[in-house]
UniProtKB/TrEMBL annotation:
Coiled coil: none
Database matches in InterPro entries: Pirin (IPR012093), Pirin_C_dom (IPR008778), Pirin_N_dom (IPR003829), RmlC-like_jellyroll (IPR014710), RmlC_Cupin_sf (IPR011051)
Domain Pirin N-terminal: 25-125
Family: Belongs to the pirin family.
Keywords: Iron, Metal-binding
Ranges where the Pirin C-terminal domain occurs: 178-276
GO-annotated molecular function: metal ion binding
Protein name stated in the entry: Pirin N-terminal domain-containing protein
Cofactor(s) annotated in UniProt: Fe cation
Entry annotated with the keyword Nucleotide-binding: no
Binding positions (Fe cation): H62, H64, H106, E108
One Pfam family per UniProt: Pirin_C
Record note on cofactor: Binds 1 Fe cation per subunit.
């Protein structure tokens, strides 16, 4: 516990991962010390990248199962296509939420005429067992609940915070919110004791209960907090993750979230040879082939990263 009686926070450094031919992302989840925050099981932060005169984001059609994708932009535009027939450009302060259910495929690309800077995050939410076999769906929300007070603007992307509720449909108690701080602004934020929380910086720097937070890392705040104090001397844009601890075991490999090695292998085979994930129409290029599976069995892990035996 900290001096203030709060759980000790842990700063988790990310690492760079190439995404497609033109984009490198900063992967913040999963990490060995912390695989999940609530049902949030994957976080990639990208940019700010200068894409003037360049292709920008170009991610060919690829499959998903067992998860939701959340796309949030600070700058730039991304054109989403999926096997449901969705065609949607997302811009800053808008939400694209894709629920894979049993299976979906999609592509993500910068439009031919696109802004000069690309900057944002993409996150995955693990679906609970009672939702992961449902039909796929796609949602776009151009207007999200937002409020400003004392130099801090809060926008709720998913879930509910400070009487603001997002229209996005999720399947576990969950929170995702952007916190935009003016220079010198501070905030005492009320939290749910039954949630765990994390914060990342998209722009600028902040002090969170005495810990410094800058872009490139994820500050895990732990469980059983009821408040956190945040201050930014020069202004900052933060993203708050929260959720009820997700206690279902998971196997994560490539673009799949499942419950066993056999499920992953079946999903890979059906992407290669079957029609489970549908077809993305209109993308000018080939779909993404799946990488080779390891020769050993994929491990089932709990939310802390402990290996579990397969019953």
């Amino acid at each position: 516990m900290t001096l203030a009686g709060l759980p000790a926070s842990v700063l988790l450094p990310g690492h760079d991962v190439p995404l497609g031919r033109y984009t490198t992302v900063r992967r913040l989840l999963p990490q060995r010390p912390r695989r999940m925050i609530g049902a949030w099981c994957f976080v990639d932060q990208f940019g700010p990248d200068d894409v003037l005169g360049r292709p920008g984001m170009q991610v060919p059609p690829h499959p998903h199962t067992g998860l939701q994708t959340v796309t949030w932009l600070v700058a730039g535009e991304v054109l989403h296509r999926d096997s449901l027939g969705s065609l949607q450009t997302i811009r800053p302060a808008q939400l694209n939420l894709m629920t894979s259910g049993h299976g979906i495929s999609h592509s993500e690309e910068s439009p031919i005429e696109h802004p000069p800077v690309m900057h944002g995050i993409q996150l995955w939410v693990a679906l609970p067992d009672d939702a992961r076999h449902q039909p796929a769906r796609f949602e776009h929300h151009a207007d999200l609940p937002s409020a400003s007070t004392a130099g801090v603007t809060t926008t709720v992307v998913v879930g509910e915070l400070a009487a603001l509720r997002s229209p996005a449909r999720v399947h576990t108690p969950l929170l995702g919110a952007e916190l935009l701080f003016d220079a010198g602004a501070s905030l005492e934020l009320s939290l749910r004791r039954d949630f765990e929380y994390g914060l990342l910086a998209l722009d600028g720097a902040a002090e969170v209960d005495g810990a410094e937070l800058t872009p490139g890392g994820l500050l895990y705040l732990g469980e059983e907090r009821t408040t956190t104090n945040i201050r930014s001397a020069d202004g900052a844009r933060l993203f708050l993750l929260g959720g009820e601890p997700f206690n279902e075991p998971l196997v994560m490999w490539w673009n799949f979230v499942a419950r066993s090695d056999a499920e992953i292998r079946q999903a890979r085979e059906e992407w290669a040879t079957g029609d489970r994930f549908g077809v993305v129409r209109g993308y000018a290029g080939e779909r993404l082939p799946a990488p080779a599976l390891p020769t050993t069995k994929l491990k089932i892990r709990d939310r802390a990263g402990n290996t579990l035996s397969e019953e």
